[in-house]
Specification:
The protein has about 425 residues and is α+β, with helices and mostly antiparallel strands. It has helices at about 5-15, 40-75, 80-105, 120-125, 125-135, 140-165, 170-190, 195-245, 250-280, 285-290, 290-300, 315-340, 375-380, and strands at about 305-310, 345-350, 355-360, 385-390, 400-405. It has 4 domains: about 1-25, no CATH class; about 40-195, no CATH class; about 205-280, Single alpha-helices involved in coiled-coils or other helix-helix interfaces (Up-down Bundle); about 285-405, Heat Shock Protein 90. Helices cover about 65% and strands about 10% of the residues.
Length: about 425
């Protein structure tokens, strides 16, 4: 009996070596039967790979957190206990980072990286603030919990996948999908960033430290400038006038020369006091706003600067002051380091943000760690919920963009 075409194709799939010898073979030019393919797509295979890798990853993470937590808590009565636990929690953050990367690659789960421990705590807070911030880090403790509960889950998923490969192949894809969905829930629930309130509290704690440090540094600068500048000149002025008083009757010409010299010292002292007052808060900024104040500071730059301020209203005085000193410091950097021929300053408002852009055509290569004060400037802006972005390829140009919150001036302008 002659086979039908469907019977012939089934026979050829099962017995490819005998396909040419069967009766009723395909004619020349007829398309060959489709090749046999696996039933699962790449997405399912990635899920299976993730579930099989759960056991070794979970075993490694479980051993790490148990050793670190047990040692840290057990030795907490000694000097090394709590620091060891803090370092272990930092390491737990790295385990969470690896697991998020694995989930992105194999499960397609996209979660943002959590907020790091505030930079001000790490750099300037000292040992004990760093220790306390590390020990109460909620991100690290959630990572510890994640690694702790993963061991039984890893054993389960590995066992189910191995058994499914040999005994439940037709439904393995459905099983893998269900287990992978549970994995996705764990990643989103325990390895995702903290909620917004928690993030804002950490940021505000960091910002408060930056504000306090900046205010203390400004007070020390003002005290130093007064002591070394105007105060020293006034002391010299008082001594000169005292000598002139003594010589007034004996040698009027010498006394007149001393008074003339004292007059010059008064002028210099007044100039230094004006410069100091400008460094605290320039009068032109208070009276006429950012446009006039930035034009004034730009005129003192060694590079020709074009200033464009497009504002229909004025922000709060504190924001105006930060914007002024930001531009002032950036222009000082241009004068000292850029070797530029021209520069520009642009200021405008976008929704509820004040935007500042300072650009120069210098040699570029500026960095936040390059000793130009950019890191401190970024921290000061961050303290008021601002942002500083630096683009400075080698060879230039350098573009610095600052963003500040727009806050109304209130009833008084």
């Amino acid at each position: 009996m002659t086979r039908t075409l469907r019977d012939q194709q089934r026979y050829e799939v099962r017995h490819p070596d005998n396909a040419d010898s069967t009766a009723g073979g395909t004619e020349a030019g007829e398309a060959a039967p489709p090749a046999v393919r696996f039933a699962y797509g790449a997405h399912t295979w990635k899920e299976i790979a993730h579930l099989l890798a759960n056991l070794p990853m979970a075993l490694l993470g479980f051993v790490y957190v148990v050793v670190i937590v047990v040692l840290g808590i057990g030795l907490s009565v000694t000097v090394v206990g709590l620091p060891l636990l803090a370092v272990g929690l930092i390491g737990a953050r790295q385990f969470g980072k690896v697991e998020r990367a694995r989930a992105r690659a194999l499960l397609g789960v996209r979660v943002e990286e959590p907020t790091p421990i505030p930079a001000s705590v790490r750099k300037h807070g000292g040992f004990f603030p760093w220790l306390w911030a590390s020990l109460k880090d909620p991100v690290a403790w959630r990572n510890v919990l994640y690694e702790f509960i993963r061991l039984p889950w890893g054993v389960l998923t590995f066992t189910v996948m191995v058994v499914g490969v040999f005994l439940a192949w037709p439904v393995l894809g459905f099983i893998a999908r269900g287990l992978a969905n549970a994995d996705r829930m764990m990643v989103r629930g325990l390895l995702s960033p903290s909620d917004e309130l928690e993030r804002r509290i950490a940021e505000l704690e960091s910002d408060r430290g930056v504000v306090v440090d900046t205010a203390a540094a400004d007070l020390r600068r003002i005290e130093r400038d007064l002591h070394d500048g105007a105060q020293a000149r006034l002391v010299a002025l008082a001594m000169g006038l005292g000598l002139a008083k003594e010589k007034l009757l004996e040698d009027p010409d010498a006394a007149a020369a001393m008074v003339d010299e004292a007059h010059g010292e008064v002028k210099l002292a007044l100039q230094e006091l004006r410069e100091l007052a400008r460094g605290i808060h320039p009068a032109v900024l208070t009276d006429r706003g950012l446009d006039a104040a930035l034009s004034s500071v730009a005129s003192r730059c060694t590079v020709p600067v074009e200033v464009a301020v497009d504002l229909t209203a004025r922000p709060a005085p504190a924001i105006e002051g930060i914007a002024y000193f930001t531009v002032s410091e950036l222009l000082q950097n241009i004068s000292k380091h850029s070797r530029a021929r021209t520069a520009s300053v642009s200021v405008w408002r976008s929704a509820e943000r004040l935007l500042i852009q300072v650009e120069d055509d210098g040699v570029g290569g500026a960095r936040f760690d390059g000793g130009t004060g950019m890191a401190g400037l970024a921290e000061r802006l961050g303290a008021v919920d601002g942002l500083l972005v630096l683009e400075s390829p080698v060879g230039g140009p350098t573009v610095v963009t600052a963003e500040l919150p727009w806050r109304d001036r209130g009833p008084k302008d």
